[in-house]
Amino acid sequence: MLRLVPAGAFLVLIGPVLAGLLGAALPAFGYLPAIGGKNLSLGPFGDLAAMPGLLRSCGLSLAIGLITTVISYAIVVLFIAGWRGTRLFGAMERLVSPLLSVPHAAAAFGLAFLIAPSGFLVRLVSPWLTGWDRPPDFLIVNDSLGLAMMAGLIVKEIPFLLLVSLAALPQIRAAQFGHVTASLGYGRIAGFVFGVLPALYRQIRLPVFAVLAYATSVVDVALILGPTTPPPLAVRVLQWQADPDLAMRFVAAAGALLQLAVTGLGLLVWVFGEKATARLCAVLYATGRRGKDDKVWRRLAVTLMSASAFIVLAGIALLALWSIAGLWRYPDLLPDSLTLGVWMRSLPGLTSPLINAVVIGISSSLAATAIALGALEYEARAGVTPTIRALVALYLPLLVPQIAFLLGLNVVFTWAYLDGRLVALVLVHLVFVFPYVLLSLADPWRAWDRRYGLMARALRHGPDAVFWRIRLPMLLRPVLTAAAVGFAVSIGLYLPTLMIGAGRWPTITTEAVALAAGGDRRVIGATALLQALLPFAGFALALGIPALLFRDRRAMRPAA
Amino acid sequence: MSDMDTAGAKTGLTLDKAEITLNGDRLAAVDAHISPGEILTVMGPSGSGKSTLLAYVAGFLDPVFSATGRIRLNGLDVTALPPERRGMGLLFQDPLLFPHLSVGGNLMFGLTPAIKGHAARHQAVEAALSYVGMDDFLDRDPATLSGGQRARVALMRTLLSKPEALLLDEPFSKLDTARRGQVRDLVFAEARQRGLPVLLVTHDAVDARAAGGPCIELA
Amino acid sequence: MLKTLSASLIMLAAAALPAYAADPDPKNWDAVLAEAEGQTVYFHAWGGETRINDYIAWAGRTVKERHGVRVVHVKVTDTAGVVSKILAEKAAGREAGGAVDLVWINGENFVALKDAGMLLDRPWASELPNYRFVDETGKPTVLTDFTVPVDGREAPWGMAKLVFFHDTAVLADPPKSAAALLDWAKANPGRFTYPQPPDFVGSSFLKQVLYELAPDPAVLTRPTDDETFKKATTQFFAYLDDLTPHLWRQGRAYPQNYGSMRQLLADSEVDITFAFNPADASNAIANNELPDTVRSYVFDAGTIANSHFLAIPFNANAKAGAMVLADFMMSPEAQARKQDPNVWGDPTVLDVAALAGDDRKRFEALDLGIATLPPEKLGLALLEPHTSWLKRLEIEWARRYGVNQ
User: What secondary structure does DSSP assign to C160-190, as a single string?
Assistant: First the structure.
């Protein structure tokens, strides 16, 4: 039975993606009989190449993806290196963790209102200081270089990278290494970078890849904050996809494959970057410099970290204020009046989408957690290590841009009469949820001290008893955290829910995105808060349940 | 289980031409018999394969190694049995008390299923605690115990599982010098009293001397 | 016993089979009503405005009470997504039991579905009982959707006309022609923009300007070619070249849709916006989105007008139910309520003058709101150009301004 789990997981992950990719590849080569494409040709790629500004769109996607990843990773590393083990570090950890549940789009809307020329920061100093009676005509949001978009992505990726790093630190015995490097006379940051980072990076490498793939192909944040003349590639693919001229579907399909290539190129560049950095570090190593005077860097780290947390929190607080605002025009710092109108109007219609979201989220995250546990347990018992093939399967749904395979997948599901069915929807969610669950779970699961298991076996308990009575309870916190991560991912899924759900299963996210199309910040604020509430509750439970169960077990508490 | 002994079989733990290789290189080879109550010490520097040998005897050998020879316990060939059916009690240098269970829970997990009934099982656990001078520790969080207390709980947990042999993997090396002697004496005394053959792997010559039995040096 | 069992088995089998039965015939309306009862209609419609969603919810409740038809509003962000869904079903060979029963649609998306044979293939809409009130002569856009004959393949639902809005507190006398707009923009740089084509409203602005600047606007209603297009748009693109540097953000960024453009007016970033709903500003004032100093106006030479419709896909699961809903949506009762700016403010497709007393009074009693122009002041209606123009306009725009670095 357990034997079948890895193969099953493999099918669940790779099957839909391959089916979807095939569904995208055929029209990309001109085949889509439903609208008259009956022969294979390279025509769609020719039409794609003729699209104005195509290269710039690709360049934007690539650059935004790489820069976003480098900066968020650097901030996280600097901060961990400079402040691990301090009181401030613990406080920041508690502050940043909940930010993971803020939807990307909500954070982007918040940021946009914060930094726009008519936004909150300008209002703070206008017109009394700046003299701006009207908002100045500065291109800040939607700037051509994508700076605002990168900022919006960075502030959301920092919490993710920080949390995966924190989960990995205890396994690599970072604290002990820290003592060693300190005793050799290295500064905090230098000691961390030379002594701990290589091991840490190995642990979080795949999540970093996921960030890179996401940032090169993100749509919602790009629509809100990104450049528009032209937009990054993923947005353009979506636009071609939405073109009323059905012949543009061929171009969209070709664009989807191009997006796949751009994301792949980004990963390739990153891997080369890894090699170069390793070389550079080896050179620095050899100098024997201790980097003792790292005060500036430590301050920089804490400044950037707090700034990113502040941006998300302030953005959310402002959206919350918008959701109850009356008229609120430039340059008023606060609304004229407060009203619950939007909440009263929206809430009745949002109860069933909330329930749907919870049902789908719980089903898919629990299924994903169960499969992940099965696969990991099989791996442990059979003594096999994950193969390249398995890793590719795992990462395919994260690395392949959603728009690249959803249309094709939609055809497959429709053909099987599965669209609009809950089971199909949960299955599609599973495709996206599972990689994140396995990602969050695999490292703590594998890092578990196997001698506990040997001990339990020697105490005459079989492997099943060891799993249920020792390993699972000991790892309850990471298991529930992984399930909560999966739940959050499920709640955030928009395109798959809409397409495969065929409108039968509206969730809080499909409703929020639909309502956001109207552009009313009040409605956006209200739905974004509701949208953030669910994952937040999930994370709270994931931390609360083990804390309650093991309240008298000191060694079960999260490492301070 | 010892009543399954075949006629003429020796009681005790037998390593019959046990040999472990890694990629064709011989790592450790032992051919020995340990009588009940006897302690065989295997010494060697780290990396000499002594822990691998112990894992082989216990049934946990990592599949990267290959092994030949047979392991017999009280005449029964256990070489092909899974660890939970071998009857080998195990102690590591870390006590490895399960952190999510209380002290009592740890002992209960170890206690052999042969003792049935809530009251009887409870009593067995309490008696074991009392035996090592730790009455009233039943509901304690293992994380709050001292090093010596943890070692004693770990020993009792193993003994409660009614092992037929003890395998010790540097079990005293993490204790401070004051405790080390006490715990070592307790473990050895229990093993002798219960007539358990003991395989001790260590790099500490003091352990070997205190064991008082035969000693094999691995290079 | 055995007989009833086999009878129910046959019924079960019939229910399980996709409905290959003949499509409902609106001329036999009682049969349609009977078939519709108990059906669930999945109505795919843009869900970006709470008040529109509320109106649809009201219509659903009413149709449920009166005809036993359950309506589920599938809120979409983009009608193209619905087209994709129907296309996926067609590609998968699903000829019946489709996910979409009724879709809110017009223009290019309608043309795409019609041309690809993905609409219910009969003039069902003009056969609906309430169609007799539709104003075919006064509102010709109900007959040709972007110059393509409707042929009864979609039921008229509402009228749209490009209407401009300005904040009288900062701009008392707004520019009412393309030329005046350019002069005003030069004098007030950064205070005007339009949604980035191919956004529907943004493209409509382009068409609006093209009508004024094309040497012979009559060519716009006919299919175009390279030659005609170039001749008709030379002046138009010269105009845009002039205008663009004076746009909001110097044309280096554009709002993505009219909702975000309205937000720009609310934030005082721009002074003029426009929408296809004449009551948009009144609604926004009522919702605290805009100050009550905002008013509507139209261009002197008229503005682009079109209609929006309800269509049934070829493979809809609940065609009878969809017809019942579409018919109700055309009823004087539903149309009058829709035109009420406190509800939605979307102008009716009916000929109000020809309605019977009570129904007419429903319309006459409406208070259109402070910022809404009455129908007679909405000015001339410019017909949508042929869709071939739009396609070329969008491509050329993207080439010239969409990669403007």
Answer: EE-EEEEETTT-SS---SHHHHHHHHHHSTT
pLDDT tens digits, one per residue of A340-366: 988 988 888 889 899 999 999 999 999
In one-letter notation, the amino acid at residue A40 is L
Compare all CA atoms of chain C with the CA of A120 and give the residue at the minimum distance. Answer: C267
Residue whose tokens read 């009693």: C365
The verdict on residue C16 lying in a domain is no
The domain at A344-384+415-552 falls in which architecture? Orthogonal Bundle (1.10)
Instruction: For the beta carbon of residue A362, count every other beta carbon within 10 angstroms.
Output: 16
Cis omega (within 30 of 0) for bond into A127? yes
Return the CA Rg of chain B: 17
A495 and A546 in contact (C-beta within 8 Å)?
A: no
Q: What share of chain A is helix, strand, coil (3-state, %, to 5)?
A: 75, 0, 25
Q: Do A55-339 and A344-384+415-552 fold alike per CATH?
A: yes
Amino acid at C82: V
Task: Among A450, A451, A460, A553, pick the best mutation site for testing chain B contact (most B Cβ within 10 A).
Answer: A460
Helix (H) or strand (E) holding B39: strand B39-43
- The distance of Cα C233 from the centroid of its chain, to the nearest Å, equals 26
- Looking at the structure, give the CATH architecture of the domain made up of residues A55-339: Orthogonal Bundle (1.10)
DSSP H/E element including B89: strand B88-91
Indicate the DSSP class of residue C229: H
A475 touches chain B (CB under 8 A): no
Of A459, A554, A555, the CB nearest to B158: A459
Q: What are all long-range contacts of C169-174, with beta carbons under 8 Å and residues at least 24 apart?
A: C169/C291, C169/C293, C170/A134, C170/C268, C170/C271, C171/C271, C171/C272, C174/C271, C174/C272, C174/C297
- The domain containing residue B161 runs over which residues? 2-98+146-217
Output phi, psi for B202, to 5 deg. Answer: -160, 165
Domains in chain B, number: 1
Q: Per residue in B198-212, is it b (16+ CB within 10 Å) or e — as a string?
A: bbbbbebeebbebbe
* Lookup result for tokens 């069902």: C124
The C-alpha atoms of residue C178 and residue C235 are separated, in whole angstroms, by 12
Q: Which CATH number goes with the domain that contains B67?
A: 3.40.50.300
List all residues 6 or more positions away from A186 whose beta carbon is below 8 Å from its beta carbon: A194, A195, A290, A291, A292
Half-sphere exposure of C349 (CA within 13 A, CB side): 27
Q: Across the strands, what pairs with B13?
A: B34, B73
| Chain A environment of C83 (Cβ under 8 Å) | 244, 246
> pLDDT of A139-156, one tens digit each?
999 999 999 999 999 999
Torsion angle defined by CA atoms of residues C25, C27, C33 and C35, in that order, rounded to the nearest 10 degrees: -20
Domain boundaries, position C249: 163-305+380-400
Chain-centroid distance of CA A300 in Å reads: 25
Clarify whether residues C132 and C98 are in a common domain: yes
CA distance A84 to B94: 27
Is C1 part of a structural domain of the chain?
Answer: no
Q: How far is CA A141 from the centre of its chain?
A: 22
For residue C354, the Cα-to-chain-centroid distance in whole angstroms is 24
Taking an 8 Å cut-off on Cβ atoms, the answer to whether A454 and B63 are in contact is no
Does the beta carbon of A480 lie under 8 angstroms from any beta carbon of chain B?
no
| Inter-chain residue contact A454 with B90, CB threshold 8 Å | yes
Asked if the model's pLDDT at residue C21 lies above 60, the reply is: no
Name which of A32-36, A101-105, A430-434, A556-560 the model is least confident about: A556-560
Domain assignment present for C170: yes
| Residue C195, domain CATH | 3.40.190.10
- Show residues of chain B in contact with A547, CB under 8 Å: none
pLDDT in the model for residue A167: 74
Q: H or E segment at C240?
A: helix C226-243
| Residue C14 lies inside a defined structural domain of this protein | no
pLDDT of residue C10: 46
Q: Considering the domain boundaries, does residue B106 fall inside one?
A: no
